[in-house]
Amino acid sequence: SLKTNKTYTIGMLTGSNANPFFAEVIHGVEATCYERGYHLVLCNSDDNLDKQASYLQTLEEKRIDGLLVMSAHSDPGFFEMLRDRCQWPLVILDCQAPGMEADVIMEDPEQGGYEATRHLLNNGHRSIACISGPADLSPSSQRLAGYHRALEESGIPAGWIIEGRLTAESGFEAANRLLNGLDDGQQPPSALFVGNDLMAMGVICALQTRGYRIPDDISVIGYDDIELASYTSPPLTTIHQPKAELGRLAADTLIKRIENPGRKPEVKTLRSTLVERQSVKTTM
Ligand code: RIB
Q1: Using a 6 Å cutoff on CB, does residue 52 contact ligand 1?
Q2: Does 95 lie in the same domain as 119?
Q3: 22: CA distance to ligand 1 center in Å?
Q4: I want to staple 93 with a disulfide (CB 3.0 to 4.6 A). Which of 51, 132, 195, 250 is the partner?
Q5: In this predicted structure, what is the pLDDT of residue 46?
């Protein structure tokens, strides 16, 4: 409004909106913005630095009151650019924000990776591979760190680690890479920890196409608990991220910061929890 110079508009920069995880988080963001009388301008950058720069310019022209930034910043130049150009209250969602003056809202990916791997160990698995997300994305690398912690704690050596790109297609390819890499007569791992549900769906499809039964031959656990995870065959055991709550909390935190810019930046962590369905077999 003219009086306060506020536009009641919030900008949101996301890495990818093709993944239902992000759609479910955005739904929470949007619900809170709407309730509090703010408009949301959504900019999908495909994790591309040029697009991110161009959207920041658009948001400058639109005169937003605050900015939400969600995940998928594999380019280290992104945070540098944000530090130079972000002139608004800032909240970062779903990734760490090294050296940024911003609130950070996320789950604990290291703990989630640990709990996923522990669940496989508790069910008697001893040969556990990991199909992880990109090593340069902080939630993915931290989930992998949790996988290593759980195995080390039990004195069990790490298995194959294959990197995917968080898409179903990359999960499909990663599972095939793993199977193609087995020597003659070598057994595949008995269980796979997969860094997100979309990749887990691609993995299940690849394994079933090659004749493996899930979970009788190979167990699979995912991460995110997107809605589709209940509808795979078999239904996917996974780590549930509180997606709508993450989105709501991020929007709420940003609006508080807009209304009270002097607040100290905080890191707020929500808890992720195991959801047991039918893709993990007990071998004990
Ligand atoms: O599915 C997308 C994944 O990448 C999620 O697990 C999210 O936390 C992200 O970083």
Answers
A1: no
A2: no
A3: 8
A4: 250
A5: 86
Q: How far is the CA of 140 from the centre of ligand 1 (A)?
A: 7
CATH of the domain at 187: 3.40.50.2300
Range of the domain at 74: 9-107+242-271
In a domain, 167, yes or no: yes
Give pLDDT tens digits for 213-271: 999 999 999 999 999 999 999 999 999 999 999 999 999 999 999 999 888 899 999 99
Q: Which residue is associated with the tokens 């050596």? A: 157
The number of folded domains in the chain is 2
Structure token digits, residue 142: 């931290």
Q: Do 21 and 46 lie in a common domain?
A: yes
Cα separation, 234 vs 278, whole angstroms: 6
Q: Which residue has the tokens 């080390």?
A: 152
Q: Does residue 196 have its Cβ closer than 6 Å to ligand 1?
A: yes
Q: What is the ipTM of this complex?
A: 0.97
Residue whose CA is at the smallest distance from ligand 1 atom 3: 196
Both 206 and 134 in a single domain? yes
Q: Is 21 in the pocket of ligand 1 (CB under 6 A)?
A: yes
